[in-house]
Amino acid sequence: MAKINSDATKYLFLLSQLRPDKLKYVVDVVDTPPATDKYNALKQRLLELYSETEELKYRQLLKMCRVGDEKPSHSSCTA
Prior knowledge:
InterPro entries: DUF7041
Structural class: mainly alpha
Shape: elongated
Number of helices: 4
Radius of gyration: 20 Å
Protein name: DUF7041 domain-containing protein
Domain DUF7041: 2-63
Strand content: under 5%
Low-confidence stretches: none
Helix content: 40-55%
Mean pLDDT: 83
Number of strands: 0
Order of helices and strands: HHHH
Largest sheet: none
């Protein structure tokens, strides 16, 4: 992808990599893509759908850091 400069080519490549069952989640971008910056519109939609929320990231961090009754400076956090 790094050597591809055309927005249309990047958009079509990304679209071709999506499984058919995942297309339903981006159908609005696929059916009526923006006039320009199609690739970034599709990429942004996919990131919104599949990126972890900040809350989930925070919860995962807390699971890794077992503080218990210890002072925060003495925690067993490996993150």
